[in-house]
Amino acid sequence: METFIQDAAFAFRQLRRSPGFTAVAVATLALGIGANTAIFSVVNGVLLRPLPFHQPEEIVAFVDAGGYKGMLLEFRERSRTLEQIEGFTSFGFEMSLTGDGEPMRVESAAVTAGLFTLLGTTPALGRTFLPEEEWTGEHRVVLLSHGLWQQNFGGDRGLLGQRIRLDGNEHTVVGVMPEGFSFPSASSQLWIPFGIDRSNPRDLWAATAGTLVGRLRPGFGVEAAGAEVRTLSQAMLGLFPWQMPADFWENATVEPLHEWMVGDSRSALLALLGAVGLVLLIGCANVANLLLARVTSRRTEMAIRASLGAGRPRLVRQLLTESLLLAVVAGGVGILVAFWGVELLAAGLPADTPRREEVTLDGTALLVSAALSLLTALLFGAIPALRASALRAFAELKQGGRAGGSRRQSRISGGLVVAEMALAVVLLIGAGLLIRSFSELHQVETGFHPDGLVTATVAPPEFRFTNVPQRQAFQGELLERIRGLAWVEEVALTNRLPFGGGAWGSVFSVEGRPDPATEGGDWPYADVAAVISPDYPATLGVRLVEGRGFTPVDRADSPPVALVNEALARAYWPGESPIGERIRQPGGAWIEIVGVLGDTKMTGLAGGNSGAFYRPMGQADAGVFSVVTRTALNSSAVASGLAEVVRSLDSDTPVEDVRTMPQLIASSLADRRFTMLLLAAFAGVAMVLGSIGIYGLLSWSVNERRKEIGVRMAMGARAKDVQRMVVLRGLLLAGIGCVVGLLAAGAATRLLASLLFEVGTTDARTFLAVPFILMLAAFLAAWLPARKATRVDPMVALASE
Questions:
Q1: What's the pLDDT tens digit per position in 402-451?
Q2: Cα(772)–Cα(766) distance, integer angstroms
Q3: Distance of CA 548 to CAs 391, 551, 562, 594, 596, Å?
Q4: Which residues of 651-688 are buried (b: 16+ CB within 10 A; e: fewer)?
């Protein structure tokens, strides 16, 4: 221990004597360690940390197994692999909270009574739902989130047993969930029991229970439960009140709840973790080169220590202690970088990132940071330490510290630079592919004109508008008043806003063709079933391909009509016009198709166009709807104007989520943009570090070869010949690194396949552009030492020898 303290004290003095070297090394390593720790904190919070539930590894979610209330009851009766099965809404729905102050929409979830028991979560106040409250009846009870209880009710403990008004109905508050509890989504603020009516078979097999989850029985695993769910799902097809295709749930299975929640986030986060790991390796290679150059200047010192009896292990230990001290300091600075980085990453994560609220710099992340510090000490310290300890003391002292070995050291340094450039190529190609993909997405036609469109959500409460005619009258009056505002150019209403989420579809049957409800077979399906006002196509700029659009005469007392888009027309009426054809939703009347609209993107720019049919607002219930205005005003001014108009009609109707259409489109690309920007930043850092590596190596090489360069110039070598010699060496190293990097990138980019759009993993433009950019950067990095080489005075260089 005493020896280690002596080594550490000596290492400290050595580093203090070289503040420039110490600062560069610490900054390079701190950036790599801090970035790795920050990204790991995100990966840990989203992917690695166990769910905050009781024995979460035993909880599974049903996948492609339906979620009907009848199926929930049947699974409970028949399952042998799952000891408890519950359900919850897999997407957030909103309820109107009214009373004191402005009305507001609250993210809500309908759940079965036993869900919280399955999760092992108990409320902070009160109780959860009773079994009898799961059934349809007069049990209007509600659980509040800790945040909603604090923000809207001031944390009043006397709220238990009191009633609040949700969607116009009085609900009794029976409990408050603990702080930090957020399920099924991070935005869930209250929970109600959804009613199950055993006496109504049609309700059981037509109404969804959302997502089903279960807890594995002892002795059963995920595979056994998945096989059972697949078998039971097929057996339940005969219980539906209409004919279902025989293969409808052939892919039914279960997966761990954690995997279900993480979804598609895994591949992007792991790609970022791998990328930032490569940045750390490049940083280590850079610092190793700095230490090798530093060892060169300390050869005499090492030789004297060896001649005085210091063995090779002693010299290695001394140099590794210096590396460890550098790593410890860099690790401390890296933690500060990580604190800042985690905050920045958490704020920049897309809003729909699962478990986003759990991203913190916790003890696990700090342990990872400490481990990274130790690992980097070994990575960048081992080669210089072994190289310096292998010096021959007698030869070094005899030649004044200028013994051979610089050529071997040059080869080692060159190899490190090649590795840096190869890793930089991999990162730059990955970033380039994502940038190309993002650019391709922006070229996708939306099918409408988003610029100048501002949208807002309006939610008429059911207690104020108890039937469809009342809601339709409210919508008509609202349209007229908004249309009369001076700043409104055009206005329309819809319950399925492009890029607004919730683009639910519907099955239907076609007149004159086999009816799946009675004759079996596959149901025709529209991905989007929307209700729109007559001005919707004109307001958004959607093309009318053929037929007519909706008019004010398309009311409840006129024949039912519909519009379809081109994608639906191609799918079910290929090569012919659908005008005049009639379709019918299950249990509904026949609806005549009167027009065809152009395709519009509804849920995202990637992928094909969704088949859609539209109903006029005068003939269908829109429920909660969006106002779409074309205006020159900004969203905040529109929000104020719309709120005033809505309040003049009904003070209990909230106006929320006011955004421009470009903002909605941008939010649909948030996850891709986040991944692209981070990977591009890491690639940029890698390119800079690689260029610095070339610059440092060539600067050291020029300094080591001053005598050789002096001799060359004394014998008539021209300055440009010397400059060419230095630059070509830098380009040679960069070229080798590019070749190795291209080969590695060809395999590594396959991991990005799921993140790309209209761009192959071996895109030629990217694979050609990246080496060109890197070779240009290498040329600039080599040119500065080359200029220095041409300024060597032959007489001074020879005299110094």
A1: 444 456 666 777 777 888 888 888 888 988 898 888 888 888 888 899 99
A2: 10
A3: 89, 9, 10, 6, 8
A4: ebbbbebbbbbebbbebbbebbbbbbebbbbbbebbbe
Q: Are 563 and 546 in contact (CB under 8 A)?
A: no
Average pLDDT over residues 293-304: 58
For the chain, first and last CA: distance in Å?
43
524 SS3 class = coil
Burial readout 31-67 (b: 16 or more C-beta within 10 A, e: otherwise): bbbbbbbbbbbbbbbbbebebbbeeeebbbbbbebbb
CA pair distance 521, 531, nearest whole angstrom = 27
Distances (CA, A) of 476 to 458, 469, 479, 529, 622: 13, 10, 5, 21, 12
Q: Please choose, from the candidates 559, 613, 556, 569, the residue with its C-alpha nearest in 3D space to the C-alpha of residue 590.
A: 559
Q: How far is CA 663 from the centre of its chain?
A: 17
Phi, psi of 558 (to 5 degrees): -110, 165
Q: How far apart are CA 534 and CA 538, in angstroms?
A: 8
* Mean pLDDT of all residues in 514-528: 78
Is the CB of residue 143 less than 8 Å from the CB of residue 224? no
Task: Note the pLDDT tens digit of each residue in 98-127.
Answer: 776 677 888 888 888 899 999 999 999 999
* pLDDT at 276 (0 to 100): 82
pLDDT of residue 706: 62
Measured CA to CA in angstroms, residue 169 lies from 44, 97, 140, 654 at distances of: 42, 10, 8, 16
Q: Cα 228 to the chain's mean position, in Å? A: 33
* Gyration radius (Cα) of the chain, Å: 34
Partners of 509 in beta bridges = 584
Q: Would you say 653 and 642 are in contact if contact means Cβ atoms under 8 Å apart?
A: no
CA atoms within 13 A on the CB side of 418: 15
Q: Nearest 5°: phi and psi at 164?
A: -125, 155
Closest by CA to 661, choosing from 352, 455, 443, is 455
Quote the CA–CA distance of 320 and 308 in Å, as a whole number: 20
- The pTM (predicted TM-score) of the whole model is 0.77
* Kind plus residue range of the DSSP H or E element containing 211: strand 211-216
The conformational region for residue 58 under phi > 0 = left, psi -120 to 50 = alpha, else beta, is alpha
The pLDDT, as a whole number, for residue 216 is 94
3-class state of residue 526 by DSSP = strand
Dihedral angle sign, alpha carbons of residues 309, 313, 314, 315: positive
CA dist., res. 663 & res. 660, Å (int) = 5
Burial of 698 (0-12, 13-18, 19+ CB in 10 A): buried
Q: Residues 391, 393, 395, 398: what is their CA dihedral angle, to the nearest 10 degrees? A: 140
C-alpha 238/C-alpha 655 separation (Å) is: 44
Residue 542: what pLDDT? Answer: 94
